[in-house]
Amino acid sequence: SMRVKIQKSMLLVLCITLLTTFSLLIAATYFQSLNNMKAELKQEAVYIQTAINISGTKYLEDMDAAQVKTRLTVID
User: Fold this and answer.
1) Angle at 17 (CA atoms; ends 11, 19), nearest 5 degrees
2) Has residue 76 been placed in a domain?
3) What GO MF annotations does this protein's record show (predicted)?
4) Residue 34: inside a domain
5) How far apart are CA 41 and CA 35, in angstroms?
6) Is residue 74 assigned to a domain?
7) Is residue 43 domain-resident?
8) What is the longest distance spanned by two Cα atoms in the chain?
């Protein structure tokens, strides 16, 4: 009947709307988290650079002893 067709159409519209909204929210959250991680990584690089400038390679040796699996490449 016409009523069933209308209900199916409305349900389809609802599902598409929910899926689209959910996808947009996930994408926005992902990109915000990615930008936060990039900013934190840049800040950590500045901290490491400052520590190397202050104490030289001794800082790197101390960090290597603390975390063996971490790799840091110094670029002049």
Assistant:
1) 100
2) no
3) kinase activity
4) yes
5) 10
6) no
7) yes
8) 81
Q: What is the DSSP string of the chain?
A: -HHHHHHHHHHHHHHHHHHHHHHHHHHHHHHHHHHHHHHHHHHHHHHHHHHHHHHTHHHHHHHHHH-TT-------
Q: For the chain, how many structural domains are there in total?
A: 1
pLDDT at 73: 75
| CA 55 to centroid of chain Cα atoms | 31
Mention every residue, 6+ apart, whose C-beta is less than 8 A from residue 72: 48, 60, 63
Quote the pLDDT of residue 8.
Answer: 97
Domain ranges, residue 58: 2-66
